[in-house]
């Protein structure tokens, strides 16, 4: 579904992503892990066309992603959340989720033209309510981000990402900063979203989450792939333990 081939991204002399390849298969939860600064977010930013790679190819469902503008990636069926929340602070939760819906309808301008304005708004409104119900944030729709706890905000951002009905969802540390209870909730949400047919590329430091939800795990260090396999294999891989899991144990 997503084919990343020999991608290199340099910042000055630093190769944040170095000849990196990975392939995400439809229907899977594919985790990308690695120590701080490994290049995971840079890779997300490259896939979503925020950063231009110096080298390599990225295809989504056979189509060259690197020929698209950042604005168009979402219309192809790719959506994301951010490591540092990027909700619209001046909008309430309802409007934040609604902003994701706009993208859903823009995918096909004809679906808007063929409806009356009223129908479109009604349908979009219902969809926001439906999503809010699933993510258990219905009672927060009128609140603004500044008024809400972090755990709720993470869910709102995920809800906005889902609103555009993507086929592939890129999640950058959805459990970061969450307590144990909130982390369990996020695990359930990730699994539920995947069961509804979304393919997920997940960056996450919390090994509980990674080992619990992943079909396959790719490990990155200094911009390069150092291992790939099912959770069982990765948790036993000596190089991975050395560069990553071991590091966590020491922390
Ligand atoms: N815009 C930028 N300009 C210069 N260097 C950058 C830029 N973005 C990232 N880097 C550097 O590229 C490397 C990879 O960073 P990146 O944020 O992709 O790592 P990461 O794997 O997401 O780490 P973390 O787990 O801490 O989020 C780091 O050395 C970082 O300092
Ligand atoms: Mg990152």
N-to-C SSE string, H for helix and E for strand: EEEHEEHEHHHHEHEHEEHH
Q: Main sheet, how many strands, which sense, barrel?
A: 6 strands, mixed
Which structural class fits the helix and strand makeup? alpha/beta
The helicity comes to 40-55%
Major sheet strand order: 6-7-8-3-9-10
Instruction: Write out the distinct hetero groups bound to the structure.
Output: adenosine-5'-triphosphate, magnesium ion
Radius of gyration: 18 Å
- Shape annotation: globular
What distance lies between the first and last C-alpha atoms, to the nearest angstrom?
36 Å
Low-confidence segments, given as residue ranges, are none
Under the CATH scheme, the architecture of one domain is 3-Layer(aba) Sandwich
Question: What is the number of helical segments per DSSP (H or I, 4+ residues)?
Answer: 10
Can you tell me the CATH topology of one domain?
Answer: Rossmann fold
CATH class group of one domain: Alpha Beta
What is the mean predicted local confidence, pLDDT?
91
Strand content: 15-25%
Number of strands: 10
CATH superfamily of one domain: P-loop containing nucleotide triphosphate hydrolases
Description:
With 251 residues, the protein is an alpha/beta fold. The protein has a domain at 84-167: Rossmann fold (3-Layer(aba) Sandwich), CATH 3.40.50. Helix content is 42%, strand content 24%. The chain has ten helices and ten strands. The strands form two sheets. A six-stranded mixed beta sheet has the order 6-7-8-3-9-10, sandwiched between helices. Strands 2-1-4-5 form a four-stranded antiparallel beta sheet, covered by helices on one side. Helix 3 (93-106) runs parallel beside helix 6 and helix 5 (117-134) packs across helix 6. The longest helix is centred in the middle third of the chain and has 18 residues, at 117-134. The radius of gyration is 18 Å and the shape is globular. The chain starts with a strand and ends with a helix. Adenosine-5'-triphosphate is lined by residues 11, 14, 16, 34, 36-42, 83.
């Amino acid at each position: 579904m997503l084919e990343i081939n020999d991608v290199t991204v340099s910042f000055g002399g630093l190769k944040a992503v170095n000849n990196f390849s990975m392939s995400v298969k439809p229907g899977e939860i594919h985790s990308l892990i690695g120590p701080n600064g490994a290049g995971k977010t840079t890779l997300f930013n490259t896939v979503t066309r925020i950063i231009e790679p110096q080298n390599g190819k990225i295809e989504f469902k056979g189509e060259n992603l690197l020929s698209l503008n950042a604005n168009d990636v979402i219309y192809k069926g790719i959506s994301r959340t951010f490591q540092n929340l990027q909700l619209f602070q001046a909008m309430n939760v309802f409007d934040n989720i609604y902003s994701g819906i706009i993208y859903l309808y823009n995918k096909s301008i004809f679906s808007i033209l063929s409806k009356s304005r009223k129908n479109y708004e009604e349908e979009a409104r219902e969809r926001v309510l439906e999503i809010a119900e699933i993510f258990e944030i219905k009672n927060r729709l009128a609140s603004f981000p500044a008024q809400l706890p972090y755990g709720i905000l993470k869910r709102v951002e995920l809800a906005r990402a889902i609103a555009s009905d993507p086929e592939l969802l890129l999640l950058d540390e959805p459990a970061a900063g969450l307590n144990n209870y909130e982390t369990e909730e996020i695990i359930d949400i990730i699994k539920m979203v995947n069961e509804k047919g979304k393919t997920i590329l997940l960056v996450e430091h919390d090994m509980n989450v990674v080992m619990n939800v992943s079909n396959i795990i790719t490990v990155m260090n200094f911009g390069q792939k150092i291992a790939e396999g099912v959770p069982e294999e990765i948790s036993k891989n000596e190089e991975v333990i050395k560069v990553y899991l071991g590091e966590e144990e020491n922390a």
